[in-house]
Amino acid sequence: MKHLLLLFLLFFSLNSFSQRIIDTVFINGEKVFIKSNHTWIYEKDLNFNGILNEYVHQQIASDTSLNYIYEWNHEECFPSDFKNDPNKLKDTIWLCLKDSVHGGFVMPFNGRVTSHFGWRRGRMHNGTDIDLVTGDTVRAAFSGKIRYAKYNTGGFGNLVIIRHYNGLETLYAHLSQMLVVPNQEVKAGDPIGLGGNTGRSYGSHLHFETRFYDIPIDPEKLIDFKKGVLKDDNLLVHKKLFHGTARSSYTTSSSGGRKYYRIRSGDTLSSIARRNGTTVSRLCQLNGIRPTSILRVGKTLRVK
Fold it and tell me: How far is CA 25 from the centre of its chain?
């Protein structure tokens, strides 16, 4: 009976977690709350703040000039997108990528790298693409907790994001099927999905990203994809580690204090104006465009 109940709860768990609690059950001795929209959540996760690495978070929080956002959000891929600026990092933060408590590293999938991190066809490619066949098993790279597991309309298709005890998050996109749900704990090597071709994808592959506080890092700075191992058990996080990311194009020039923004998928003039503390009319004036102009991904707008 417990197994049937657990399957029922897992089936409905990909919906919103914001409804009121209507019932309580116990599964394997742990209290589980049932919500009015038939979703569920463990009691231990009800007030979870998303912090899995207190050591790293204390260093981030102690520097008030950073003002980094680090939400535990099941609905948005990158809640702090373009708010956490790597250029503000003054000190180097040490991350132990694997340890005896939470386990080591496992390749998400052993396949040929077909596309690298960096600018590609006028837009930023924030991860490493790995060739696979639809249905191949994709695994968690490190131990951690599922933050996001749903279909993403921004181009990722079926997408899983895992927050890890080592201070990183990893992202697994274009899956044909997801095998995990938000708040679920996983170990390095656990199956989290099946490879596929969903979203904005031209052939079956795994789009894999590594991020620190929502800021993308080239996965090949951490992983030797040919050997299938970490290049080092430790990672030193400093602003130069992020050189080459989309944020490096979001800078103020030395002449006249002009500031430019590179357009990303899903951007609108309203969202860009709001993000940069300006107005749509001012953006139109600076760039010689109209409010109805089509925004081309990868192109640059002057915002100041």
Answer: 32
The predicted-structure confidence for 54-107, as pLDDT tens digits, reads as follows 999 999 999 988 989 899 999 888 877 667 889 899 999 999 999 888 999 999
Q: How many CB atoms lie within 10 A of CB 279?
A: 13
Picking from 154, 180, 177, the residue whose alpha carbon sits closest to that of residue 77 is 154
Buried b (16+ CB within 10 A) or exposed e, 235-266: bebebebbebbbbeebeeeeeeeebbbbbbee
* DSSP helix/strand/coil, 6: helix
List alpha helices for the chain, DSSP H.
2-12, 54-62, 269-275, 280-287
CA distance 145 to 163: 5
Whose tokens are 């592959």? That residue is: 205
The C-alpha atoms of residue 234 and residue 229 are separated, in whole angstroms, by 13
Contact 131, 114 (CB under 8 A): yes
Distance of CA 283 to the CA centre of its chain: 29
